[in-house]
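ENTRY TYPE: protein
WANTED: fold as tokens:
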Amino acid sequence: MSKVYPDAKAALAGLLRDGMMIHSGGFGLCGIPALLIEAIRDAGVKDLTIVSNNAGIDDAGLGLLLKTRQVKRMVSSYVGENKTFAEQFLAGELEIEFNPQGTLAERIRAGGAGIPAFYTKTGVGTAVAEGKPTAVFDGETYVQERGIVADLAIVHAWKADTEGNLVYRKTARNFNPIMATAAKVTVAQVEHLVQPGEIDPDHIITPGIFVKRMIVCPPGYEKRIEQRTIRQRAPAAAGAD
């Protein structure tokens, strides 16, 4: 059966339900599965738990799901760029589980590796550790963190073959690879689709065994930039070649 679907709606058909947990790859607007997020919005499912490093911005990415109030709970590290998120949280309309960024990444990686829990020093003695078991190793206190396995992972990749082997590009790699391994079903949106054998095996980051469905981004697909920073180029020195 082909893993390639005609569009995001078709790729998510039969997978979405109210109250589910979704891993959403990306960091801000970099490497986010925007087309799949839009399809989740259009499906109207609600009471979602979203695991993502952050909540994007108000009018793009996961901000779209917050705007339509489809998200009940966020498991995140940083959410400072989204005003809608702040308003809903302060009004008691949105639950948040904050995680140190490294801890969040390791919780997801552990889930994909079949590790139910691990211990870390990060967060000991702070609100992050409240209500969690602790243990002493070599005279130091550590807090227990649980691995996370989601019902669905949505990720963005730069290139894939039809078998679902994924390659990510530079910083757009971010959380996508670990999330792809830590869900019951993983759906990927990819920029370039090639045939099996056209990707050097050494370049494959997510093996196709983890990817159940894919869509190809249409021509002209816009990858938003969260904050564009530029600087003036220094003039060439006089007489320089």
In short: DSSP finds six helices and eleven strands in the chain.
